[in-house]
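Allow me, if you will, to draw on your knowledge of protein folds for a short while. I have a record of one protein: its chain in single-letter code and its fold written as discrete structure tokens. Kindly check, if you would, that the fold set down in the tokens agrees with what the sequence suggests. Thank you for your consideration; the sequence and its tokens are set out here:
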Amino acid sequence: MKAKLRRLPHQTLPVTSSRSGMTGHEVCDGIPKEEADAIRDELLNFVRDSNPHILEDLHQRPFMVVDSTNRYRESLGRYLETFDKMPIVRLFSRNSSDEVQYHQSHPILYLKTEGPIRYPVGKHGLAFTFIALGQLSDVNGFLALGSLNPTSFNLESGQALHCLGDLEQRFGTGGGGLAILIAWMTIRISRRLTKSQDIGSGEDSTISIGKGIGTSTA
């Protein structure tokens, strides 16, 4: 489900970042911790009410999209309203933020799996932002990036990881973590996509949530 955004008053976010060289990812501030924790609790309650065993069962895919809530949509709207695209621009090695477009976003729940899952390199011209809802690491399902020596992350609640879509993604067997997933693309890629080739749909799209973020059909 695509989040419906409404314009909200401008708010200034703290700006700090941890750049991982030219590795295609960057950790920055995202949303306030209290806000992220509240969204996490709300989404977890919704998930447990809908499927009480989903957090304990083993699954074939490492994460799933969950329905958004009003609190989630309002927080996402504030984040996008004040978001500085420069971290994404740097990842794309672009000179102008006008060449980077917001595509869409979803709340996602990381699932327990029977074994590690690896998604190969995806498509150029695509980037993702993951905002941690609660602490997020490989213990509760968060991804590692890279093929030879994958980089693991330990995000505090509210922190954001920006990464390129062409990095290999690896998932362990843990689950239970929650994140806001935002997709960005260059204008060149945006012009090539049809309405049916968005996140969660489109058999040919490499940004199909049903097949993970990458191109795997696992």
In short: The domain at 25-192 is CATH 2.60.120.620 (Jelly Rolls).
